[in-house]
Amino acid sequence: MLLAKLAQGVKFVTLPRFEPNSFFKLLDEHQATVLYLAPPLVLLLASHPGVRPKHLQSLRHVMSGAAPLGSLDVERFLRRTPPTTDILQGYGMTEASPLITHGIIGSTDYDSAGVPVPNTEMKVVDAETRTDLPQGEMGEICLRGPQVMKGYLNRPEATAEMIDSEGWLHTGDLGYYDKEGHFYVVDRLKELIKVKGFQVAPAELEEILRSHPDIDDAAVIGVPDERAGEVPRAFVVPKRSQISEEDVKKYVAEKMSEYKQLKGGVEFLASVPKSPSGKILRRMLKGQ
Questions:
Q1: What is the pTM of this model?
Q2: Could you identify which of 136, 177, 231, 284 might form a hypothetical disulfide with 225, taking C-beta atoms 3.0 to 4.6 angstroms apart as the criterion?
Q3: How does pLDDT run across 74-105, given as a tens digit for each residue?
């Protein structure tokens, strides 16, 4: 990404370390037209009280990756940008060098991660049987193309587990594709919460929680339950101290199916633990 833009003579501005006020200052000073952002920074720009119209007035395109970004979060962000601003999602992984799909400029299908990059084949399979699934059915995303790694160094068993005999790389990501070939990444397969045989994607609940006017950020994990096997538990960063656990549960209950409700409870945090790329560190939450 960096070399491609520099080759085109584009001015590239980076931060040595992230701090909101420094970030806002650079946005104002350089009047950026293109931003490459992980989802937490999109959420920050959508909700931080320090963001002013001058910070985003020159913005034309936003590229987001590293984790799924839901349409509700995108719409909150776009309320603060010029009406002509595009936001695109890309999907990739280190084992694919790293790009797999890229959004289409002008698309308003904000949930989509786009279409496969050139020379890339993609499909969705049943995670257990590895049989191909048709459009619209949820399963594991797989790809095949020149960007796929040869394998893990000195780890043949790990390589064989990820890349099958026909050269398909099994990503471990849950998703589906539509009739136009657009792919949608829902969550990591290993993160799914299994409630009475139903599969619940934490990312879906997290997006709903962030749409609450008194919630700044959220994370969801599965916790053991004697009857259901697992149930969702939410970790919430409130905007005001008066919001209660019952408020949060009621909000989700009004919008989601019965098996997706927060029967594992709600805990309030000062911040959600995340990696530098913006991925939620669920293992830290499970240890609490």
A1: 0.87
A2: 231
A3: 999 999 999 999 999 999 999 999 999 999 99
